[in-house]
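About this split. The held-out portion is used to measure sequence recovery: a designer receives only the structure tokens and must propose an amino acid at every position. Recovery is the fraction of positions where the proposal matches the reference. Here is one held-out target exactly as it appears in the evaluation file.
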């Protein structure tokens, strides 16, 4: 049996603005509203981040995107152009550097709702098949 994650709900204080910003940075499609309550970001053919608006407080979530070297360069350029601060370590200071700790490249940023976004080219969570 193969199990695939289909979607994840992302709490937000402004669902459309947050979904749009992430989609623009990643270079993927998004939709302002679906079912009247979600603003989905379509990461790939099988995974969607559904932003939902809330006025309640919520914990910071961590999301990691594994991308190709070419996509990494393009996304990093969009992050830099947008003036978004990033860092090379998960809990480190904003150093505007790229981590190469695990044989690839990676960065972390916290826009727009405080959630922690990570982008890497080589997974450290599992060894290549």
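Reference sequence for scoring:
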């Amino acid at each position: 049996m193969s199990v695939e994650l289909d979607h994840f709900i992302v709490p937000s204080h402004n669902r459309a603005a947050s979904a749009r910003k992430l989609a623009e940075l990643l270079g993927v499609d998004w939709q302002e509203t679906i079912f009247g309550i979600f603003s989905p970001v379509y990461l790939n053919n099988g995974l969607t981040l559904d932003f939902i608006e809330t006025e309640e407080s919520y914990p910071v979530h961590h999301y990691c995107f594994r991308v190709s070297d070419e996509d990494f360069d393009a996304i990093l350029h969009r992050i830099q152009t947008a003036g978004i601060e990033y860092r090379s370590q998960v809990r480190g200071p904003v150093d505007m550097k790229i981590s190469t700790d695990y044989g690839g490249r990676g960065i972390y940023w916290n826009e727009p709702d405080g959630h922690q976004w990570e982008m890497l080219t080589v997974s450290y969570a599992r060894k290549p098949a």
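Annotator remark: DSSP finds two helices and seven strands in the chain.
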